[in-house]
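User: I'm writing a tutorial on reading structure tokens. Could you give me a worked example: one chain, its sequence, then its tokens, then a sentence or two explaining what the tokens reveal?
Assistant: Sure. Here is the example chain.
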Amino acid sequence: MVKCGNCGLDVSDDLENCPNCGSSLVKSEEINEVADTEIVCGNCGAQLKENESFCPSCGSEVKIEEDDSLKCESCGSNLPENTLFCPTCGTKVENVQKANKKNCPNCGAEIEDDITFCDKCGANVFTGEKNKQELVTAGSFAEKINLSTIIKPSIVALIVALILSVIGLLIGFSWFSFVIAIILSVGFFGAAIDNEANAIIFGLIVGLILGLLENPLVEFTYGAFVAGFYEGFFGGHLILIVILGAVMAYVSNKYLKESILGLTDNFKGML
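And here are its predicted structure tokens:
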């Protein structure tokens, strides 16, 4: 069947003239073929030849729009967005989400339109910046250290450790007061540090200061005489407290983070 170019009637291929209007079907078919291949200037509307780059009437550059719509890989038909099967041939569409994908601004990988972080490089697809926590985790030990994140937790943990040490001395725990104090304070606040490298530095700092203040705290609690006796009988425990602080901070940050932070969240929810 062919369509008459004059009246639009579908007629048999064997006929040379349209039975409705009498127009020549061969001529009509040729006219339709020419019309399908015509290129028109987008500026002045003049008809252009196929290989012309500039319009001979107005001089405008000829720009041919490319069809970037999703096509069926089997029959070449244009497919609507989110189509699972081609409506023409029934072939399963492999690249269904092509229209709903974009490129990561950081690595250029093709990603889904509704995600925030690239699954290839981890960058934020809106800002192009990588997740800072991921960068810290992926780097070496030295690259993970950020002293600005240690200062505040160290001060808070040290104050708590000093209070616990004094309480332990008052109730007779002797030098065990400092061991218990460093375990509780560093263990609790070490979980809030951003990574294990910073946690170790945090534990060393708190342990070092508490170890240096061991004898002064005994003197503050019981006086100079008892402090002298304490130092002569027990000695100092600086190295022990420093090592214990670093180990406890690492264990807390590495293995107890979720439990401790979950406990604090539950406590906040009760207030």
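What the tokens reveal: Residues 2-48 form one domain. Residues 151-170 form the longest helix (20 residues).
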